[in-house]
Amino acid sequence: MRRYISFNLIHHLRDEALKCNQWNFNRSKYLQHRFDLYATLNCQDGNGHSGCVNALDFSSDGIFLASGGDDKRVVLWNMTDTLFDASYRPPTTLTATHLSNIFSIKFDNQNRRIISAVKSLIIHRGLNSGHADELVDVFLESSPVNCLSVQPQQNDVFIAATEDGHVHLYDLRSASSAAEHDQPSTVV
């Protein structure tokens, strides 16, 4: 009976690459850079969050990452600078601090707005080239909001899932003030 020795080309090439000193150097440098990046997500120096991070969302082009957490702040990270630029630039903290922990955050499809949810408030802010923010609207919910989602084809439409089991539909084109949003359309 002949015994066949299997040969996996992918594993062979990987093993050969690991033997190369140049690749090992680049790999360790890359891993150290990634570790440094993770360390900045939760730090006490004001450049990251000072508490647990509960919500993350990438912009549709993948350039920005929005994070929100127990420190009641939304932090906007430029991933291109963070991952590929040798000179580290700290992330942007959006000016308005929330009243409680942030549990959901979403970019709109055109990366012009960030919608975040805390307890029974939904905060809608406009972004100016991803570097400055302005409070656009505040929506009141009767129950804590657990999840947000922006409609892929309609940039002005988003839904909010609340703790009481309802899903509410918001259309930003329908009204200009928070008072007019007291009764959103209940979808489910």
Percent range for β-strand residues: 35-45%
Helix content: 10-25%
The N- and C-terminal alpha carbons lie at a distance of 65 Å
**Fourth-tier CATH superfamily name:** YVTN repeat-like/Quinoprotein amine dehydrogenase
Task: Please identify the structural class as seen in this structure.
Answer: alpha+beta
Into how many domains do the coordinates divide?
A: 1
- CATH C-level class is Mainly Beta
As residue ranges, the low-confidence spans are 176-182
CATH topology: Methylamine Dehydrogenase, Chain H
Output the number of helix runs: 3
Major beta sheet, strand line-up: 1-2-3-4
Provide mean pLDDT, rounded: 72
Number of DSSP E strands: 12
What characteristics describe this protein?
repeat, four-stranded antiparallel β-sheet, 12 strands, 20% helix, WD40/YVTN_repeat-like_dom_sf, alpha+beta, 188 residues, DCAF8
Walkthrough of the structure:
One of its GO terms (cellular component) is Cul4-RING E3 ubiquitin ligase complex. It holds the Pfam family WD40. One of its GO terms (biological process) is negative regulation of fatty acid biosynthetic process. Keywords: Repeat, WD repeat. With 188 residues, the protein is an alpha+beta fold. The protein has a single domain, classed as Methylamine Dehydrogenase, Chain H, CATH 2.130.10. 20% of the residues lie in helices and 36% in strands. It has three helices and twelve strands, in the order ααβββαβββββββββ. It has a four-stranded antiparallel β-sheet. A hairpin with a 5-residue loop joins strand 5 and strand 6. The chain is globular, with a radius of gyration of 22 Å.
